[in-house]
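Internal tracking record. Fields below are filled automatically when a chain is submitted to the structure queue. Please do not edit lines marked as system-generated. If the sequence contains nonstandard residues, flag them in the REMARKS field before resubmitting.
Queue: standard
Priority: normal
Entity type: single polypeptide chain
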Amino acid sequence: MSTEKTRPGSGEAEAAVRRLLDWMGENPDRPGLAATPARVARSLARLTDRDGTNLEDLLAEGIFPAEGSGLVLIRDVEFYSLCEHHLLPFFGRCHVAYLPAESILGFSRIPRLVNHFARRLQVQERLTRQIAETLEEAVQPQGVACIIEAFHLCMAMRGVEKQQAVAVTSNYRGVFDSDPARRRELGDLLKARGNFCF
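SYSTEM-GENERATED OUTPUT FOLLOWS
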């Protein structure tokens, strides 16, 4: 059973943005701000929109019999999300790897999986874990790894105000957790085209 809440109408969101602008000491009726409530409502709807995607269907339609035993890596999947603590964006790259057992997942399904979990209020650690565990459940591979590198505007624009800091999180499962050789293989592939981080 879905735990998704039904989104209220955009009018409620626009009224909330108007109240926020007023709280900031702005006049929400001045020319530069008159359309801002509607723009912000549309923007937030897009940033948290999973397009009505049913995750189970999305993955099931992309599962095929495995035809090899080599590691599969989709690297540099660009994403953006919103930090649930400050509602400020964080964005970066996600690297997802797995070692197939009996099934593989179509390549395009992995970026879709990343988007599915990124387009909501998030924390990077949870995002990393959700991607890894969902892939593990979908294809039952020998191992899964998810590594995310991201810039957080909540850290760049407020608080410590460090504009160049990159947060890196990882989640290793199966052979990537237990076999140092497999972890090294993954690291070598990630470094193959240059610097690992941005």
